[in-house]
């Protein structure tokens, strides 16, 4: 089976399962509900987040050899692999956990620190990975 087809199958299957499971996240009955005019926009975003989650799972399964081929140090390569996976995987649980907070600021701050801080760290790690690889390349003539 072609490599891209495996990626697409895992992405679509896992994404479809995640999307189907989204309504089962426990949301308090007192949580504010979006008006009907914007609800389709949230549903579309949830679909994209679910597909991103599926792509993150596909990347975890198939992406490591591709990152290893970049030739970085083993520790930084592993950090880049995990960072890429987190950047893809985090959106589905992140948004669903926001819905669960019901505006409770002590819970919102946990979601913010649990997702936003690692997103910043992942971006910094990927920048470091890229710069370290770029420094290995000879300067153009």
Low-confidence segments, ≥5 residues, pLDDT <50?
Answer: none
> Which radius of gyration do the C-alpha atoms yield?
18 Å
Count up the helices: 6
How does the overall form come out from the CA principal axes?
A: globular
End-to-end C-alpha gap = 41 Å
Largest sheet: none
Decide which structural class fits the backbone: mainly alpha
DSSP, total strands: 0
Total number of domains: 1
| Content of β-strand | under 5%
| Helix content estimate | over 70%
Structure description:
This protein has one domain (3-136). Helix content is 75%, strand content 0%. The chain contains 6 helices and no strands. The chain has helices at residues 3-21, 39-62, 64-68, 74-89, 91-100, 105-136. Helix 1 (3-21) packs across helix 2 and helix 4 (74-89) packs across helix 6 (105-136). 21% of the residues are buried.
């Amino acid at each position: 089976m072609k490599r891209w087809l495996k990626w697409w199958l895992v992405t679509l299957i896992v994404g479809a399962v995640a999307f189907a499971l989204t309504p089962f996240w426990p949301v308090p009955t007192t949580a504010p509900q979006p008006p009907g005019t914007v609800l389709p926009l949230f549903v579309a975003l949830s679909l994209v987040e679910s597909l991103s989650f599926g792509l993150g799972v596909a990347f975890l399964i198939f992406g490591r050899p591709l990152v290893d081929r970049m030739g970085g140090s083993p520790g930084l390569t592993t950090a880049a692999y995990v960072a890429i996976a987190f950047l893809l995987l985090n959106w589905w649980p992140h948004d669903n956990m926001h819905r669960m907070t019901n505006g409770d600021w002590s819970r919102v701050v946990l979601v913010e620190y649990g997702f936003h801080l690692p997103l910043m760290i992942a971006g910094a790690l990927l920048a470091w990975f890229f710069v370290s690889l770029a420094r290995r390349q000879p300067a153009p003539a």
